[in-house]
Design a protein that fits this description.
Structural class: alpha/beta
Oligomer: single chain
Distance between the termini: 9 Å
Helix content: 25-40%
Number of domains: 2
Shape: elongated
CATH architecture of the largest domain: Alpha-Beta Complex
Strand content: 25-35%
CATH class of the largest domain: Alpha Beta
């Protein structure tokens, strides 16, 4: 089959790789300029040489399928263990360990989170900077060779035997909405319409003349910050210290369209409350807003599909059975295994 996948996050890349290895012709279309979705890495700093994970700072594994994948990434020297606990700030004091959390292995990418997406893309054709505006279904009585037409906002098209939408639920909803008059996708549309997301601000900050702290990360409970990542503990950075501040859900909801300077200053004040005065005046900063940071409602299955063997269509993502990196992987993995069993 010729399979079109919309979205080059972990779910889409995982499904695409397995289906390509099974002999299918897979093309992934991604509207942004990079792989991995929130498994994102940016070059920053005064010399633009520091690799900083400004999306997801780390991940962990619980199930056998994802553990096996992490073993592959470890063998390829793409990921590394990042410790088994984080420090904890309870609003008044900084503690070495979170007293309310049991230790477990946390992982991060050696050369940046987006390196995982780049690795998975080796098995498929990924076209970056390609925004999909909708789908057209031609069905059985058609003049075209294949039942699906992917319509791009640039007005060109791509024909496919099957389509996978590997996007945040609101974006998948928008694309599925273009097919309702042609094929019965209403059930899927109604279900994913119930999935909402929490937004999140992330602030990258560099301190050229400061030694990196001893901790890898700090879980925060001060109303402004949720987590502080010490990027120096992941990989070598330029001189000094590089931190990424991840805002709390409460703060991010209160500041969705606020002035970036106000957001930055409030987040730096939240950082200073944790670390002390040395972090109040960074040498450089970069701010990023994640509109679809984490799904708040999870769906009970690993994926959803329109069960038409002549025109397969499916939706995958981290909002199926969870909201973590592992859940994104499992969604794409389970769909791919299902289709391989079904279609070969």
């Amino acid at each position: 089959m010729v399979i079109a996948i919309v979205g080059a996050g972990l779910s889409g890349l995982t499904a695409g790789r397995l289906l390509a290895k099974a002999g299918h012709e897979v093309t992934i279309f991604e509207k942004s300029a990079g792989f991995g979705g929130r498994m994102a890495t940016r070059y920053a700093g005064t010399e633009q040489v520091s690799r900083i994970d400004h999306g997801l700072p780390y991940f962990s594994a619980e199930g056998d399928d994802f553990r096996l994948f992490l073993s592959e990434l470890t063998e390829k020297k793409l990921i590394q263990r990042w410790g088994d606990h984080f420090s904890f700030f309870d609003g008044t004091k900084l503690m070495h360990k979170n007293p309310n959390s049991a230790g477990k292995s946390f992982y991060t990418a050696v050369n940046g989170m987006n390196s995982i997406g780049k690795y998975l893309s080796r098995w498929v054709d990924v076209q970056l900077g390609r925004k999909v505006g909708g789908l057209t279904f031609f069905g059985k009585n058609r003049s075209l060779k294949r039942p699906w037409v992917v319509n791009f906002t640039s007005s060109d098209t791509f024909t496919a035997d099957a389509v996978i939408l590997a996007l945040p639920a609101p974006q998948a909803y928008g694309i599925l909405g273009t097919t309702i008059d042609e094929i019965n996708t209403l059930k899927i549309v109604r279900v994913i319409d119930e999935v909402s997301y929490r937004p999140s601000w992330s602030l990258m900050a560099g301190f050229q003349n400061e030694e990196p702290p001893a901790w890898e990360g700090v879980v925060c409970r001060n109303g402004v910050l949720d987590f502080i990542s010490n990027e120096n503990s992941k990989r070598e950075q330029e001189q000094g210290t590089t931190l990424v501040l991840h805002a709390s859900e409460q703060f991010s909801r209160e500041q969705p369209g606020n002035d970036p300077e106000t957001v930055k200053n409030r987040m730096l004040a939240g950082l200073a409350a944790v670390t002390g005065g040395w972090t109040s005046a960074p040498d450089w900063t970069q701010l990023h807003f994640w509109k679809y940071s984490r799904p708040e409602k999870q769906l009970p299955d690993f994926f959803m599909e329109h069960e038409d063997e002549e025109a397969p269509l499916a939706v995958v993502g981290d909002y199926f059975r969870g909201n973590r990196v592992e859940d994104a992987y499992n969604s794409g993995y389970r769909l791919a295994r299902h289709w391989i069993e079904k279609f070969g």
